[in-house]
From TrEMBL, chain A:
Listed name of the protein: Cell division ATP-binding protein FtsE
One of the GO BP terms on file: cell division
Localisation: Cell membrane
SUPFAM superfamilies: P-loop containing nucleoside triphosphate hydrolases (SSF52540)
Chief localisation class: membrane
Matches recorded under Pfam families: ABC_tran
Phylogenetic lineage: Bacteria, Bacillati, Bacillota, Bacilli, Bacillales
NCBIfam families: FtsE
Function: Part of the ABC transporter FtsEX involved in cellular division.
Recorded topology in the membrane: Peripheral membrane protein
Family indicated by similarity: Belongs to the ABC transporter superfamily.
Automatic annotation (TrEMBL), chain B:
Origin species: Tumebacillus lacus
Keyword Transport among record annotations: yes
UniProt record similarity statement: Belongs to the ABC-3 integral membrane protein family.
Annotated protein name in UniProt: Metal ABC transporter permease
Mode of membrane association: Multi-pass membrane protein
Keyword annotations of the record: Membrane, Transmembrane, Transmembrane helix, Transport
UniProt keyword Membrane, yes or no: yes
Superkingdom assignment: Bacteria
CDD domains: TM_ABC_iron-siderophores_like (cd06550)
Positions of transmembrane segments: 12-33, 45-71, 91-109, 130-150, 179-203, 215-236, 242-262
Subcellular location: Cell membrane; Membrane
């Protein structure tokens, strides 16, 4: 599903974010990425959806060699990946369903399909009755559900989440985490960077710890392992 | 009031007004969402220079205004890219450049007098039949543009980066839209006047964005507000013998103020009702504290 071979990343200012990272994530896995701030966690995540490019090494996502990917093939890659951000990144002037449908408007999908698919994912995240609300009328947890629905609309093989519960209170974080669990049960691979110790320790999933630009730990049923 | 439609020039003015009110607010919504509200203002100053050139050379002024606005639109886009971090500079440069050339060119032409003020502030007797045909052409062009390109335009407007990675020809589309905006500015001129044309683009958009939920409704409300202000403004202009441009913009501002006040009141009522409901359901402070 996702493979990295000896990946290095040096930023133009000379900062070395990753030093020879190799990892393999299989289809259907649920992986937490943990580690101190500034240890390369964010870079590691961003390389997967080609927000950043590696300085050296190769990355495969769902069969695509990210490095060799032609400019015009990028949309194809993006369609296999759903991304969920800490700050939701919803468009404030569009309704919930317009926000979710956006990714399908981009690829000029038929109107009927857009409508049907939007209703499906809204139902999955439990927000069917909020379809015509504006983002600022929703709570933080509901907004994050909308952005998860948006990530799901293309039926991606993998969802990459960068601190999705970073702006939410503990109770809401659990609701969101259960939603991810449900999505994972339906077969979608999930890679999630997080600082939430309690959740990582309770869920007992695979844990990748990134420290000093290297994978310091890779445990099948891992724990968070840091004092927050 | 109805007897005013016996006059051919008024029929022309209203026809022209309706056409402008259909397209200018739509362009305005996109301009506002793309953070280019000042572009209409800039293009109107540039097209004023076009009018001046037309007057000087004895050419059809709407045509020279259109040419000037098109050149201006290309410049706005190009300058915006070259001054990336200070993209509003392109606006400042072109606006002063346009006005300066208009003033100088005008002073060269001793014959100009009354008709020039009608381009500045708008006039209801200035619309000729040829103007109507040109306007009709521009309205049709706007219609075709959005009929075929609304989706890429929609994506470009809300998320330029996504548009780029999705293979939308961002540069081409962006320039085409600027050109279209330039044409609309140039043809709106005879009615509302160069100095006020941008108001008819951005004010309906800002009113619509306040009250609408979702994009489709925003466009609809903007056009509705545009039509109301243009029809109301033209009628008042005829009845009270005041310039249409100023009247239309004052009407728009009145609608904006009323909208803001009504919205305020509604949200105050909602807050009160919400608080009362909370009290009835026992969701008050006491219970919250009790739970902890």
């Amino acid at each position: 599903m996702i493979e990295m071979h000896d990946v290095w990343k040096t930023y133009p200012n000379g900062a070395v974010a990753l030093q020879g990272v190799s990892v393999r994530i299989d289809k259907g896995e649920f992986v937490y990425v943990v580690g101190p701030s500034g240890a390369g966690k964010s870079t590691f995540i961003k390389l997967m959806y080609r927000e950043e490019r590696p300085s050296q090494g190769s990355i495969f996502v769902n069969g695509f060699n990210i490095e060799r990917l032609k400019e015009r093939k990028i949309p194809l890659l993006r369609r296999q990946i759903g991304v969920v951000f800490q700050d939701f990144k919803l468009l404030p002037t569009l309704t919930v369903s317009e926000n979710i449908a956006f990714a399908l408007e981009v690829i000029e999908a038929p109107k009927k399909k857009i409508k049907q698919r939007t209703a499906e994912v809204l139902e999955l995240v439990g927000l069917s009755e909020k379809a015509s609300a504006l983002p600022n009328e929703l709570s933080g947890g509901q907004q994050q559900r909308v952005s998860i629905a948006r990530a799901l609309i293309n039926n991606p093989a993998v969802i990459i989440a960068d601190e999705p519960t970073g702006n939410l209170d503990p109770e809401t974080s659990w609701d969101i985490m259960n939603l991810f669990e449900e999505i994972n049960r339906r077969g979608t691979t999930i890679v999630m960077a997080t600082h939430n110790k309690e959740i990582v320790n309770t869920m007992k999933k695979r844990v990748l710890a990134v420290e000093g630009g290297r994978i310091a730990r890779d445990e099948r049923r891992g724990v968070y392992g840091y004092e927050n | 009031m109805l007897e005013m439609f016996q006059y051919g020039f008024l029929q022309n003015a209203f026809l022209a007004g309706i056409m402008i009110a259909l397209v200018a607010p739509v362009i305005g919504v996109y301009l506002v969402l793309r953070r280019q509200s000042l572009m209409a203002e800039t293009l109107s100053h540039v097209s004023l220079a076009g009018v001046a050139v037309g007057a000087l050379l004895g050419l059809y002024p709407m045509l020279t205004a259109m040419v000037a606005a098109l050149i201006g639109a290309v410049f706005v886009d190009t300058l915006r890219r070259s001054f990336k971090a200070y993209s509003e500079l392109s606006i400042a440069i072109l606006m002063s450049g346009g006005l300066a050339s208009a003033v100088v060119l005008m002073s060269l032409n001793k014959g100009v007098s009354r008709s020039f003020t009608s381009y500045l502030f708008g006039s209801i007797i200035a619309v000729s039949e040829t103007d109507l045909y040109v306007m009709g052409g521009v309205v049709a062009l706007v219609g075709l543009f959005f009929w075929f390109l609304w989706r890429p335009m929609y994506v470009l407007t809300f998320d330029e980066e996504t548009a780029q990675v999705s293979g939308v020809p961002v540069k081409l589309l962006s320039v085409s839209f600027s050109l279209l905006a330039g044409l609309v500015v140039a043809v709106s001129m005879p009615i509302i006047g160069v100095l006020l044309v941008s108001s008819l683009m951005t004010l309906p958009a800002s009113i619509a964005l306040r009250v609408s939920r979702g994009f489709a409704m925003t466009i609809f409300v903007a056009v509705l507000v545009g039509l109301t202000s243009v029809l109301g403004g033209l009628s008042a202009s005829y009845a009270l013998d005041i310039p249409p441009g100023g009247t239309i913009v004052l009407l728009l501002l009145a609608i904006l103020v009323v909208t803001l006040i009504v919205k305020r009141i509604v949200s105050m009522i909602q807050a009160r009702v919400g608080a009362e409901q909370d009290a009835e359901n026992g969701n008050g402070v006491v219970r919250t504290l009790g739970e902890r």
